[in-house]
Amino acid sequence: MVKPIMKDIFFLQQKSEPAAAADAQVMRDLLDTLQAHREECVGMAANMIGVKKRIIAVCIGPIQLLMVNPEIVKKSESYEAEEGCLSLPGVRRTTRYQSIEVEYQDQQLKPHRQAFSGWTAQIIQHEVDHCNGILI
């Protein structure tokens, strides 16, 4: 189900809690909401739909990758980026990393460790920041 986008800064600045199998509906809602905003959005965290759980969804071309309990475990090559966010007005500067490695679980809670670079890495970093209550 497509959910409204959360814009409450106080809510968005709170850290998200670990997700579990009981959060399957939140995972589906997050994917549905990201798909509904595909024209203006390439990633979304569960707190952006009002749920403080560590779940993110990222567009990689036509594919939506769902990550449950993502943790960035390695990063390299920092750079300055400009980013926007559906939950916040305007564009802001922030530091990102060209290459990252992420440990996460898929929708079935099977563990993964995967490397990402470039634009995809930047999107993942933005959404993991959301999980940690960090806003651009």
Can you describe this structure?
There is one protein chain. A hairpin with a 5-residue loop joins strand 4 and strand 5 (111-117). The mean pLDDT is 97. A five-stranded antiparallel beta sheet has the order 1-2-3-4-5. It has a single domain, classed as Peptide Deformylase (Alpha-Beta Complex), CATH 3.90.45. It has three helices and five strands; from the N terminus they run H-H-E-E-E-E-E-H. It is globular. With 136 residues, it is α+β, with helices and mostly antiparallel strands. The active site is at residue 127. It catalyses: N-terminal N-formyl-L-methionyl-[peptide] + H2O = N-terminal L-methionyl-[peptide] + formate.
CATH topology: Peptide Deformylase
Dominant shape:
globular
User: How far do the termini sit from each other?
Assistant: 27 Å
Beta-strand content: 35-45%
Helical run tally: 3
At the first level of CATH, what is the class? Alpha Beta
CATH superfamily: Peptide deformylase
Helix content: 10-25%
Structural class: alpha+beta
| H and E order | HHEEEEEH
Q: Note poorly predicted spans.
A: none
Largest sheet: 5 strands, antiparallel
CATH architecture: Alpha-Beta Complex
- The Rg value, from CA coordinates, equals 14 Å
The spatial strand order of the largest sheet comes to 1-2-3-4-5
Number of strands: 5
Question: How many structural domains in the coordinates?
Answer: 1
Average pLDDT reading: 97
GO molecular function: metal ion binding; peptide deformylase activity
Cofactor: Fe(2+)
GO biological process, one term: translation
Protein name: Peptide deformylase
